[in-house]
Amino acid sequence: MAPRRHARSKMARRPHHLPPHRHQLKKITLAAVAAAIALAATAYASPYYALHQIKSALAERNAEALAAHVDFPALRASVKTQLEAGMARSIEATAGSDNPLAALGQRVASAMLGKMVDAMVSPAGVVALVNKSAVSPQTDANADAPAEGARKKADYSAGYAGVNTFVVRAKDGDAQQGALVLLRHGVWGWKLSSIEIASAMAGR
Q: Is this model's pTM higher than 0.85 or not?
């Protein structure tokens, strides 16, 4: 009887192996987790890649390439709102808030803004707008340079302002001036939807 007990003990000590179907399921689960992590990382990095493409198009002054990253209806609405607000402040400061001509002037100016905004927010016009933004290299007035001025690397910060909003701001001067706002389009796509234009331009 003793040999039988010894045999049973050896059987009890045999390593436990997962059934083939459970082993395969474990592999699939690990692969799914790895794919999910890769997907999340790619989605997180997507606006930085879009910003890189915008900067490359700007450096090449390639209006067509830049236009592919612009939501023109949203950008037009943003620019028009800023210009209207700037003109309203300018008219009120000149004519006074109680002057009936101020309201008339504002209506006339608003009617004229449509064509102005269409010209500003065209593929070629967007190149000029972005060229004055936070991502554009700035002229160094203190440097010994040719007539066109020395160009120093743009100093800006970029980051999420929400799950679907990505903002690029200048580090020097007015952080709002020249800020770019990109909104998510789909999972990986991002498009320029707003540019905080300079207060001097908005007040013209």
A: no
